[in-house]
Amino acid sequence: MLNLAIIGGGPAGLAAGLYATRGGLKDVVLFELGMPGGQITGSSEIENYPGVATIMDGLSFMQPWLEQCFRFGLKQESKKVVKVVKNKDQSFSIFTDSGDEFKAKAIILATGSEPRKAGFKGENEFFGKGVSTCATCDGFFYKNKEVAVLGGGDTALEEAIYLTNIVSKVYLIHRREGFRAAPITVEKAKKNPKIEFVLNAVVDEVYGDKSGVTGVRVKFNDGKTKELKVPGIFTFVGLNVRNSIIKNDDKFICNTNETGQVEVDLKMQTSIKGLFAAGDIRQDAPKQVVSAAGDGAVAALSAMSYIENLH
């Protein structure tokens, strides 16, 4: 039986693995299908992590984490977890999509979040063929072309600014006049000559042909529409937490809020003893790398204390 299972390999999961193994805990396994690093690896630039003065992309930023976090004995299982169950003996069972079952004394949920769909017509049809949620992944395909960006938060504006280094023009579409993004980011975007603001508008439809997107129709609050002849649109309209693994028979095994975020106390303890949550999946998460890493450290220390007191 594992002492601790960490599900999710983003900043929260990796920090949890580092603190647990460096703290002397044995039999700690990180469940992450593919290369750990998390959603931040798709970010174009990180400039606000304390102690890291160099501005770098998310992939480069996370690279040293992998070496450091596996140095003290953390092991990885490259398997997709589909369900977590609390057993009568107080242990947990972890089921994977390949039919494997692992048992653990404690679990840290660090499954994070994923980009939310905007819900406009053509979004699903052209996803991956002109509709994207990752500027660093797909921006290169639109070199010297015009593209659209949908959203009004920090991510949307930051990625719009990043895209101006590649494309000829960015139409920034936002449903309101004001932005949720930090004022310094808004100011930077407004000063960028390659960004044209399309405000008080929503995307009505994305259309195209077999080769992909050929245009975006936006609809303004007054009912008027405008056609943007662009081959691509990047959407940044929020995140949904990845919580499906803690849902059994349409009920969550621990307490969650109305949006499905896991309720925790200051020790990252959920309503189920031995089950902890860290990072974007927990309630009121700031969705910042530094916060996720802090959550992971707290969760690991709490889990170690819980395991120690089992006997």
TrEMBL record:
It comes from the Bacteria. Binds 1 FAD per subunit. GO terms for cellular component: cytoplasm. NCBIfam families: TRX_reduct. Keywords: Disulfide bond, FAD, Flavoprotein, NADP, Oxidoreductase, Redox-active center. Belongs to the class-II pyridine nucleotide-disulfide oxidoreductase family. Homodimer. GO terms for biological process: removal of superoxide radicals. Its cofactor is FAD. It catalyses: [thioredoxin]-dithiol + NADP(+) = [thioredoxin]-disulfide + NADPH + H(+). This is Thioredoxin reductase. It comes from Campylobacter ureolyticus ACS-301-V-Sch3b. Residues 3-296 form the FAD/NAD(P)-binding domain. GO terms for molecular function: thioredoxin-disulfide reductase (NADPH) activity. Its EC number is 1.8.1.9. Pfam families: Pyr_redox_2.
